[in-house]
Write a structure and sequence with these properties.
By secondary structure, the protein is α/β, with parallel strands linked by helices. The chain has three domains: 166 residues, Rossmann fold, CATH 3.40.50.720; 162 residues, Dihydrodipicolinate Reductase, domain 2 (2-Layer Sandwich), CATH 3.30.360; 83 residues, 2-Layer Sandwich (Alpha-Beta Plaits), CATH 3.30.70. It is built from 14 helices and 16 strands. Strands 7, 8, 9, 10, 11, 12, 13, 14, 15 and 16 form a ten-stranded mixed sheet that branches. A six-stranded parallel sheet has the order 3-2-1-4-5-6, with helices on both faces. Helix 7 crosses helix 8. The model has no long low-confidence stretch (mean pLDDT 96). The protein binds NADPH dihydro-nicotinamide-adenine-dinucleotide phosphate and L-homoserine (HSE). The site of NADPH dihydro-nicotinamide-adenine-dinucleotide phosphate has 28 residues, from helix 1.
Length: 439
């Protein structure tokens, strides 16, 4: 066995991921140290309430009530930040780096919003910031894109990267369950963020897309440019219609490089049943990446939860153990591209993006309505792929119509929908969900 001294770890946060990290490090200590070339030992930990009973073996770990003490502890080589959010996480991470500690974090909000500043501090301090767990939990997709696909120009990527949203949409589709009940279950299982609106409003997926897009396309981290829609407006009605038409509704994160710029968007999307992504269910995540040399590749695995996320955190610790003492100039750039070589391609506004759409309208069941709707679509240059008209309930004069349209500019679609919504025979709501064949 190696005679190198153990890598001494201090963990900030003993919740779902902190607990999972300690359990995995203890259970697999032997296999981990054989890979790392040295032992990895948790020597200190901190939480909001260190007296709280936890179902964890904390023997040999010094518990600090004040996390600011842990980040400057001379007995700690690496700080693992598993608190979440940006306050106090940002301040603690920067203090740790300035005290010469390497940092591992699972905090996507922190990296998406403040990564550039944090990487600069790390460069100055010649320390490592590792963040594999920030995207897609247990799937080592950052490593795959940064290292495994380094030869490729990435054309596009599409992923289901929020486990909570996928858990909810899958249950709505397979188990006929209501939104609120399933969200509660996702929270109990430790999948949801401390504030679950980050999950269901698409913010968490946008944080992750910010990070993976920077690594794939060499653009700066720019969360504020991402178009974001969550899943609150997706109803069981639309999930059922989509199924009848051969689709599943998934919350997708999409990034695509075009000659004029980069598309960055997260929103519910109808995906054809025969696509692998349509069949990724529950808390599982998957990301499809299209490189010009490798072609399409697909990465699949648990996107949230204690041990899948701990798997990524511990892999980062193994990398730190291997890189410990390596000249900082020879280390992997955190966002794959050399800092001086970032692309200046703009992020495209949503209006200039072309996609196909699923539309659900409620119209008065009388002659000529369909002709009016199709006239507006035709005038906007919007080509119809399919129409499904339901029979109205007995005595109900309103009838739902589902229309699938071929890809068209978002701006043209919105203009046409505004006109359609203004027709006297059309009633609210007019539902619009984007579609993607992922071909
Ligand atoms: P939890 O809420 O389960 O745990 C957070 C921990 O941080 C708790 O131990 C809490 O202490 C401690 N804490 C909270 N606020 C403070 C504070 N102000 N000062 C010191 N300690 C504090 O979160 P998770 O483990 O779920 O998530 C941790 C990070 O991992 C987040 O960034 C999250 O986005 C990310 N992540 C989570 C995944 C998951 O599946 N849960 C998956 C991938 C990433 P106490 O226990 O005393 O309350
Ligand atoms: N809340 C996140 C999710 C955790 O549900 O995907 C994993 O990042």
């Amino acid at each position: 066995m190696s005679t190198l001294p153990a890598l001494r770890v201090g963990i900030l946060g003993l919740g779902t991921v902190g607990g999972g990290t300690i359990s995995v490090l203890r259970r697999n200590a032997d296999a981990i140290s054989r890979r790392a070339g040295r032992q990895i030992e948790v020597v200190a930990a901190s939480a909001r309430d260190i007296k709280k009973p936890r179902n964890l073996d904390l023997s040999g770990i010094t518990l600090c009530q004040n996390p600011a003490d842990l980040v400057k502890d001379p007995n700690v080589d690496v700080v693992v930040e598993l608190i979440g959010g940006t306050t106090p996480a940002k301040e603690l991470v920067i203090a740790a780096l300035q005290h010469g500690k390497h940092v591992v974090t699972a905090n996507k909000a922190l990296i998406a919003l403040h990564g550039s500043e944090i990487f600069e501090v790390a460069l100055e301090a010649q320390t490592i910031v590792a963040f594999e767990a920030t995207v897609a939990g247990g799937i080592p997709v950052i490593k795959a894109v940064r290292e495994g696909l380094a030869a490729n120009r990435i054309g596009w990527l599409a992923g289901i990267i929020n486990g909570t949203c996928n858990f909810i949409l899958s249950a709505m589709s397979d188990a006929d369950q209501e939104f609120e009940t399933v969200l509660k279950e996702a929270q109990e299982l430790g999948y949801a963020e401390a504030d679950p609106s980050f999950d269901i409003d698409g913010i968490d997926a946008a944080h992750k897309l910010t990070i993976i897009a920077a690594i794939a396309f060499g653009v700066p981290l720019q969360f504020e440019s991402i178009y974001i829609e969550g899943i609150r407006y997706v109803s069981r009605t639309d999930v059922d219609y989509a199924a009848r038409l051969g689709y599943r509704i998934k919350h997708l994160a999409m990034a695509r490089q075009t000659t004029s710029g980069i598309e960055l968007r997260v929103h519910p999307t109808l995906v054809p049943n025969n696509q692998l992504l349509a069949n990724v269910d529950g808390v599982m995540n998957a990301i499809m990446i299209n490189g010009d040399a490798a072609g399409p590749t697909l990465f699949y695995g648990a996107g949230a939860g204690a041990e899948p996320t701990a798997s990524a955190v511990v892999a980062d610790l193994v990398d730190v153990a291997r890189d410990f003492g390596v000249d900082s100039g020879s280390r992997m750039p955190p966002l794959a591209f050399q800092a001086s070589q970032q692309s200046e391609l703009p992020i495209l506004p949503m209006d200039s993006i072309e996609t196909a759409y699923y539309l659900r309208l409620h119209v008065l069941n009388q002659a000529g309505v369909m002709a009016d709707v199709t006239r507006v679509l035709g005038a906007g240059g919007i080509s119809i792929e399919a129409i499904l008209q339901q029979e109205s309930e007995p005595g109900d004069p309103i009838v739902p119509i589902i229309i699938l349209v071929h890809p068209v500019l978002e701006q043209a679609m919105n203009q046409a929908l505004e006109e359609i919504a203004g027709l006297s025979q059309v009633y609210e709501p007019v539902v619009k969900i984007r579609m993607d064949s992922l071909a």
